[in-house]
Each structure stands twice: as structure tokens, then as C-alpha cells.
Amino acid sequence: MGHPSSLRGPVAGEFPGVKPGALDADLLSALDRREIEVLFQPQFSCATGALVGAEALARWQHPTLGEIGARDLFAIAERAALVAPLSRHVVARALEDAGRWPAELTVSLNITPEELGDPRFAADFASVIAKSDIEPRRLMLEITEDVLLRNLEQASSALRALRKLGFRTALDDFGAGFCNFRYLRELPLDAIKLDKIMVDDVPGDAKALAVLRAIMQLGKALDLDIYAEGIENDVQRAAITSEGCDYWQGFLRAEPMKSDEVLTLAATARGRGHG
Fold first, then answer.
1. In this structure, what DSSP letter does residue 182 have?
2. Which of 31, 40, 115 is nearest to 76 (CA)?
3. Which residues pair with 53 in a beta bridge?
4. How far apart are the C-alpha atoms of 275 and 272, rounded to whole Å?
5. What is the CA radius of gyration of the chain?
6. Calpha distance 218→70 (Å, rounded)
7. φ and ψ at 63, to 5 degrees?
8. Measured between alpha carbons, how far is 158 from 152 in angstroms, rounded to an integer?
């Protein structure tokens, strides 16, 4: 749930009538004021309908602009050279919240290009997790294609080190970029997450369905779990399930929510796949 589109500028992190520098300067104090919160997008099993985990999403509750979503927030952080402290803050908040969840629920964390490009990242991240109540097996680290375009070798090295420690890894937004199949061959991945664009016209568009079917077969051949993002209706959910998708997330059942709401959902029959 990003900032209302009517107020956003054409460039990520910029807003009409607001000087970019003003937001850059404000972000550091926003971290201290705990205006940066973490919401969670629930993820469900295609087979059972049960809640299996959630993706952590950063939001800035700005006192005058209202809610600023992750895309704009990290664009502002990059301009202000605050990506690292922002990421640490988000991870710390997410781990604190997810530490109170049932042990079977996983949490997905988005890893930035700046983090993965740091040779110390794997060791530093493992150290942070070791101080939390979360076991590595419950964490899915999501990376996007722009991470890999910057330094594939470094990204691969960091992911291999983290996987040895028990973390799981996923290639996020698959289908939104170049879909470089070299990444699937060379990276130590456990899952791919299909971008919303991959399911938008499924199953009505024969070509879209054929592409989805081919990607599903490829993922299964590589022994990868497959997540679908942006599921908004029962027809889409039924289509991805019939094609072999493993997990999904989307507004059909849940918008991004606070940690307490995840706990409530997990405790209901609906969260256990009944209804």
C-alpha cells in the first residue's frame, strides 16, 4: 500500500510541491521517531489455503504527507545515503514482531542492492539474526534483479554463505524485468516469486497462461518453490493452483497488515485454511 498515486511524482521518492532534500533530511529523524513501521503481507498455501507466513514491507507514516510506501521510501533513503540504517531498522522491527508468531510461520525480508554488495553483509546479517528469537529456517531473503545486475558474483557468494546457515532465498518480481535465466542457473535459490504482471491476464489470455505454465514447469524442474504475487480474485487463485503454484499473496484475502493482525489471522479458522 504505497502513497496515494495522485500525490506522487513521476520519479520514485519525489512528491509534487516537496523538495527532495527536505524528505532526505527528515528521514534520519523519522527513524529516531519510529515513524518507519513494518506491515506484513500474508502468504497462503495454494494446496490448503492456510496462512504460511508473510512478507515484511516498510512504510513511512509521514506527519504531513501521510503513508509513504517502500518504493518511495527506499528511493529517498538512497538519495540520503541511509539505505543501510533504514534496512537495519526494518529488519529489527520485522524480527521483533515475527518473534511472537507461531513457529511454523515464515517471514520474508527484502534485501537491497547496497546490502548484498557489501562483502560483510552475510556475516553481519547472520549476527543480527542470532540475537533474535527467529530461527534462520523461518526466514526467506528476497532479492530483485537490480541487485544482480550490479554484482552477480558478490550476490551469489553472499547467498551461498547465508544458505549454509539455514536461510532460504528467493528471486523476487520474476517476470517484471529481463527474466535472465542465467540467474536461475547460477544462484543458490529456494524459490521464485512471480510478479503480478505474470498473473494479471490469467487464465483468460491464452498466451499469458502458456507463459505462466512454462515458468511453472521450469521452476519445478529446478526444484524451486513458486510464489505468486498480486492475486486479486478467485479465478486467478484457482488458475495458479491448477498449474502447480505453491504459495500466493494478494488482496484477495489480505492487504498488508500489522503484526497483531497476522497473529489474529493465524488463530482463526480462515488462517488455518478453513474459509
1. H
2. 31
3. 43, 106
4. 8
5. 18
6. 30
7. -65, -25
8. 10
**Cβ-based burial of 27 (10 A; exposed 0-12, middle 13-18, buried ≥19):** buried
> What confidence tier does 63 reach under pLDDT thresholds 50, 70, 90?
confident
Q: Which amino acid is at 14?
A: E
**Amino acid at the residue 229:** E
Q: What is the CB neighbour count within 10 angstroms for residue 232?
A: 14
Residues facing 59 on adjacent strands = 37
Cα separation, 245 vs 259, whole angstroms: 26
How sure is the predictor about 25, in pLDDT bands with cuts at 50, 70 and 90? Answer: confident
Give the residue carrying C-alpha cell 500500500: 1
- Mean pLDDT check: name the lowest of 159-163, 167-171, 271-275: 271-275
Pairwise CA distance, residues 202 & 196, whole Å: 11
Are the C-beta atoms of residues 159 and 141 closer than 8 Å to each other?
yes
Which pLDDT score, from 0 to 100, does residue 20 have?
66
What totals of helices (H) and strands (E) does the chain contain, helices first?
11, 9
Least Cα distance to 239 among 196, 202, 210, 265 occurs for 202
DSSP string spanning 111-155? Answer: PPHHHHTSTTHHHHHHHHHHTSS--GGGEEEEE-HHHHHH-HHHH
- Global confidence as pTM: 0.91
**Model pLDDT, residue 13:** 78
Return the H-helix or E-strand segment holding 15. Answer: none
Question: For residue 93, what are the contacts with CB-CB under 8 A and spacing of at least 6?
Answer: 36, 37, 38, 56
Alpha helices in the chain (DSSP H): 20-32, 70-79, 83-98, 113-116, 121-130, 145-150, 152-164, 181-186, 206-221, 234-242, 259-267
